[in-house]
Design brief:
five-stranded mixed beta sheet; five-stranded antiparallel beta sheet; about 50% helix; about 475 residues; Heat Shock Protein 90; alpha+beta
Length: about 475
């Protein structure tokens, strides 16, 4: 929104004549009048500086300039004319020692004095010879020669000169109006731009402050999660350990009901421990503290290990899990434990959201990646080329993920169904950890439809990771 005070100051500005009209244009305007009427014209600014002139030194004044006393007197009169202030009517008249006349006219615009027009010297039509004062000042002057040159001066009546002055004043007023309006428009536009820029700077400053606060809060949150998770992990490990020992009968025989209670304690403890491990992993990934221990691994062996882990849960839910691995796949340079964590999270999620009788599949094949899809490849995209990669496709025919939710599921703690009545549990950390681990390997993870129902997670990892992509 524009600042009213700034706009008011723009409207109240009093520009100078030379700020509004180009000096060359002023000279051309005066020159056109001089060529028509032959009367010398000079234009002075309000500060007394000459802005434009259309005049020639007449032969009479050239001759008088050679005479010391007369030349000094003429210069004095010219100086007085330059500083002559027009009267109430906006005009003043000054007669020269020669009998010629100077006319000074105030130039106004919008009630403000902008400058002065000085006409002359010119002779009145009835004046046929120089003033006697000239010869009283210099008796040695050639009267006949001076009279001849005096008669060559431009001859106009005072009325004609005043009419000419009014014409020029109106012309200047029209020009000044047009130029002043353009100046006001330009200044108001600049004021609006400056105000918009100031508002943008203010918004940028507030955004930077908010971003700094959010960054600090995020750091504190990560530190809090790491500290709390670490402090919870130790006693929880003891709870799980002692519950296992009790179940195994190390503290004596148990009834079936006691064994059931202890099994529940152990099961819930394992769930809580998994949550704590997820929080620790997330805080380390967010703080860039996770170091990948890369080595050359076979993708099919990782997939086989993952399937062995999820098969008991899948059979319990009556969900079939199949795999298809392309023959002859090269070994990839990756952290085997982290890669196993990525695939286990995806396959376990697929089984969780697939109903009885459903199917989950894992396809592994050789693929390629565009340079812009490689993590850390910014700045060398134009120089890059497609790179060999391994693609893992985890597909299910479960409930699927709506298209408008697909970008959000990788956010920490986000769940598509966050209601208190949702059927499936979980913390919403798994996919966030998956995304960060995949990007740490220089790869990408995307979500596709599994027509007619279900979801396909596609993880693409380069065979050889490079920080330059």
């Amino acid at each position: 929104m524009s600042n009213p005070a700034a706009l008011t100051s723009i409207e109240d500005v009093s520009p100078r004549l030379e700020d509004l009209v180009d000096r060359d244009a002023l000279g051309e305007l005066l020159g056109s009048v001089f060529s028509l009427f032959g009367i010398p014209i000079r234009l002075y600014g309000q500060d007394g500086r000459l802005l434009a002139a259309a005049a020639e030194v007449g032969e009479l004044y050239a001759l008088l300039g050679e005479h010391r006393r007369v030349g000094a007197r003429v210069e004095q009169i010219v100086s007085e004319v330059k500083h002559l202030e027009p009267g109430p009517g906006g005009s003043a008249r000054r007669e020269c020692v020669t009998g010629a006349v100077y006319r000074v006219v105030r130039l106004e615009y919008d009630g403000r004095a902008m400058g002065r027009l000085i006409f002359g010297p010119y002779a009145l039509p009835e004046a046929m010879e120089p003033s006697d004062r000239l010869f009283e000042l210099a008796p040695d002057l050639d009267r006949a020669r001076c009279t001849e040159l005096f008669q060559r001066l431009p001859r106009l009546s005072d009325e004609r000169v005043l009419a000419l002055a009014r014409h020029l004043s109106l012309t200047f007023e029209l020009v000044l109006f047009s130029e002043h309006r353009a100046l006001l428009t330009s200044n108001m536009h600049l004021a609006s731009v400056r105000e918009s820029f100031r508002e943008l700077e203010e918004k940028t400053r507030k955004l930077e402050e908010a971003n700094a606060r959010l960054t600090e809060l995020d750091r504190l949150k990560s530190n809090f999660l790491a500290t709390v998770s670490h402090e919870l992990r130790t006693p929880l490990t003891s709870i799980i350990g002692y519950s296992e020992m009790l179940v195994e009968g190390l503290a004596g025989d148990l009834t079936d009901e006691q064994r059931e209670f202890l099994s529940t304690i152990r099961e819930k403890g394992d769930q809580l421990l998994a949550l704590i491990k997820g929080l620790l992993d997330l805080s380390k990934l967010e703080s860039k503290m996770t170091n990948l221990e890369r080595e050359y691994v076979a993708a099919d062996s990782i997939v086989e290990d993952v399937l062995a882990t999820v098969q008991p849960h899948a059979r319990k839910k009556q969900v079939s899990v199949t795999r298809h691995t392309q023959a002859g796949l090269p070994r990839m340079y990756a952290d085997p434990e982290r890669l196993r964590q990525v695939l286990l999270n995806l396959v376990d999620n697929a089984v969780k959201f697939t109903g009885p009788g459903g199917c989950v599949s894992i396809d592994v094949r050789l693929a390629s990646m565009d340079p812009e899809k490689l993590s850390g490849s910014q700045g060398v995209v134009l120089l890059g080329s497609r790179r060999a990669a391994i693609e893992f496709r985890v597909a299910d025919d479960g409930i699927g993920i709506p298209e408008h939710e697909r970008d959000k599921v990788f956010d920490a703690f986000y769940q598509v169904d966050s209601s208190s009545t949702r059927e499936q549990g979980g913390t919403g950390l798994g996919l966030s950890i998956v995304k960060r681990l995949v990007e740490a390997h220089g790869g990408s993870v995307t979500i596709e439809d599994n027509v007619p129902r279900g979801t396909v997670f596609v993880v693409t990892l380069p065979l050889r990771f490079s920080s330059l992509g």
